[in-house]
Each structure stands twice: as structure tokens, then as C-alpha cells.
Please model this.
Amino acid sequence: MLKSGRLVRAPRLTLYSLPNGLASARLALIIPKRLVPLAVARNRIRRVIRESFRLHQPRIGTRDCVVRLVRAPGPAPITPAEVEHLWSRIS
Model:
């Protein structure tokens, strides 16, 4: 799916999306341990992305979405605005 889907890039996140033919959108997350070693930090990133997905789900439609962390967040956490930027660029 990652190669055949639509790709949207942000500085630290990448979104792959593909129509799924189901009644609702689905979300998968890839948060590598090598980029974010602390489980607390990985879980916080997941919560931020899931909440943003929940809020934008009606607009996303029936798509499978995979959000992948591609760069370590460093001292600045992933923000809801950063994730919303991904959803705004999906069509």
C-alpha cells in the first residue's frame, strides 16, 4: 500500500492514502522506536495523530491512511497543527 497510495509529506511526517471501498476511513501509524526511544513520547505522538484523524474523518472519506514518522521530533513535540497540515492536503 505504501508504494501505490497517494503521498503527502510534511517535515517530520509522511501520509500515504489509498481509497479502500469500505464505509469509513482507517488509520495505521508507524512510529519507529529508533526515532523515538521513549514509549511515553511514542504514545503521545500516536494520541495526537489519532485525535486529529478522528476530527477530520468525515472529510477524509473512505480511505486507508498510513502516517509515518520520518524524522525524530527532537525537543519540539509533534503538534496537532502539524498533523492537520497532512489532512488538509489529502483529497
Observations:
- The beta strands are 6-9, 13-19, 26-30, 63-69.
- The chain is about 35% helix and 25% strand.
- The radius of gyration is 13 Å.
- The chain has a mean pLDDT of 91.
